Automatic annotation (TrEMBL):
The chain crosses the membrane at residues 48-72, 93-116, 136-153, 165-186, 198-215, 244-262, 282-303, 324-350, 392-412, 424-443. GO terms for molecular function: antiporter activity; xenobiotic transmembrane transporter activity. Keywords: Antiport, Cell membrane, Ion transport, Membrane, Transmembrane, Transmembrane helix, Transport. One of its GO terms (biological process) is monoatomic ion transport. It comes from Sinimarinibacterium flocculans. GO terms for cellular component: plasma membrane. InterPro entries: MATE_fam, MATE_MdtK, MdtK-like. The keyword Transmembrane applies. The keyword Ligase does not apply. It is found in: Cell inner membrane. Its main location: membrane. This is Multidrug-efflux transporter.
Length: 459
């Protein structure tokens, strides 16, 4: 007889949250790096802040692409562990993934360096902002390869349930980033004053530091040491890279579709003036901070579901997938309640500008609604990654964000009297469609099969 569903869900929720808690902290360290860059650049000069904002956005668009591809390593490794594959076999895949990450890093670096001038020419920035942004992009491109190595190392460690490895690397990276922001931007303690370019070099040094921390942990921790990632063997690239691309390219499209939707929405807000942009930034920043929890739960759900799928445990796949979505829904209700009941308090943490505050409060009410759907879609996506289901989720999310959400946001904002609120309605409708579609997909992929009552539709 199977265990009662509610006690089983509670046990799984605890296991998921134990895995997710360090991931949440890791995500916050990465947000901290961006926040430190913004604060340091803002104190340098207005032109420096603008240059860092432009350069960081160019860098971030590429970051999402290559992070998305290499996120495939998490479910692949988790399923191999769940299937009982030896550490040597899993390690062979990880070595191939690391070699592939070097190639991707070179591609990322070359792309940023080639795109710098055309992008900046198109933006028509004045001097000295253009020069600062150009130097920032060229310097930041050197972070590409170490970051790609970090993506593989992090996903592999998390697939083994070793989420504190990434947290340690993230904390070390944050410390180095803040320190060298201060040293290189302002020329402290005998270091050259490099302005915004120094901010980019701080990012490079932080990425290199994280690689060293991961290398140390992969030598120190027995489970990771057993993978043999430092063996001087030629990795088998063909089959393993093919598996990463089959899974990773759809994941990349999923994560970039959502992030680019929000970026384009911010550009739409610029049509309504600086106060509207500032109000939008307050609401979207708080929503993004809250989103770190369901995003991390989604990562943990990928690992939990992947382990069960690799072991062929259909009941556990179903339980873990549904538990992840339930955690996301519960947190969504909590965070939405906070935004809906304390909007003025939240906005007061960011600004006291009389022209910004009332509009930011109204935007937070919209954020409270879209947060519910965003949390559900993030955890549902995590469950589907665990069973290596990425193509249909890609179609669902791209359709929701790009075919429905963005056109609706544009039409409501510029062709009706809705104004800037139309952008938020576009967000809400697109996220609701994505949440419904992905939840239905999870239900379909984990439903019991008639011919074998314990099985689910797993690849």
């Amino acid at each position: 007889m199977s265990r009662p569903i509610m006690p089983a869900l509670r046990l799984e929720a605890r296991a998921n949250l134990r895995l997710a808690a360090p991931i949440i902290a890791t995500q916050v360290t990465f947000m901290g790096m961006g926040t430190a860059d913004t604060i340091m650049a803002g104190r340098y000069s207005a032109e420096g802040l603008a240059a860092v904002a432009v350069g960081a956005n160019v860098w971030f668009l590429a970051f999402m692409v290559f992070m998305g591809i290499l996120m495939a390593c998490s479910p692949i490794v988790a399923q191999r562990i769940g299937a009982g594959r030896s550490a040597g076999e899993t390690g062979a895949f990880v070595r191939a993934a690391l070699a592939f990450s070097v190639l991707l890093g070179l591609l990322w670096m070359a792309g940023m360096r080639l795109a710098a001038d055309p992008v900046l020419d198109w933006l028509a920035l004045g001097e000295p902002t253009r020069g600062y942004a150009h130097d920032y992009i060229l310097a930041a491109s050197w972070s590409a390869m170490p970051l790609c190595l970090c993506f593989v190392a992090r996903n592999t460690a998390e697939a083994h349930g070793l989420t504190r490895v990434a947290l340690l690397a993230g904390l070390a990276g944050l410390f180095v980033n803040v320190l060298f922001d201060w040293l290189l931007m302002y020329g402290r303690l005998g270091f050259p004053q490099m302005g915004p370019e120094g901010c980019a070099w701080a990012t490079v040094l932080a990425a290199a530091t994280m690689v060293l921390v991961y290398a140390g942990q992969y030598r120190r921790i027995a489970t990771l040491r057993a993978l043999g990632v430092f063996r001087a063997e030629v990795p088998r690239l063909g089959e393993d890279i093919g598996e990463i691309l089959r899974l990773g390219l759809p994941i990349m499209l999923i994560v970039t579709a959502e992030s680019w939707m929000f970026n384009i929405g911010a550009l739409m807000m610029a049509r309504f003036g600086a106060d509207t942009v500032a109000a939008h930034q307050v609401a979207i920043n708080f929503a993004a901070l809250s989103f770190m929890v369901p995003l991390s739960v989604g990562f943990a759900t990928t690992v939990r579901v992947g382990l069960a799928a690799g072991a062929g445990d259909a009941a556990a796949v179903r339980l873990r997938g549904h538990a992840g979505i339930a955690i996301g829904a519960c947190f969504a209700l909590f965070s939405a309640s906070v935004m809906a009941t304390m909007p003025a308090t939240i906005v007061g943490l960011y600004t006291d500008a009389a022209a910004v505050t009332p509009l930011a409060v109204q935007f937070l009410y919209f954020a409270a609604v879209f947060q519910i759907f965003d949390c559900i879609q993030a955890t549902a996506n995590g469950a589907l990654r665990g069973v290596k289901d990425t193509r249909v989720p890609m179609l669902i999310t791209v359709s929701a964000y790009w075919i429905v959400g963005l056109p609706l946001a544009w039409w409501l904002s510029f062709r009706t009297s809705t104004g800037p609120f139309g952008v938020w309605w576009g967000f809400i409708v697109s996220l609701a469609i994505a949440a419904a579609g992905l939840s239905a997909r999870v239900a379909r992929r984990t439903r019991p099969r008639p011919q074998a009552s314990g099985s689910v539709d797993m690849p």
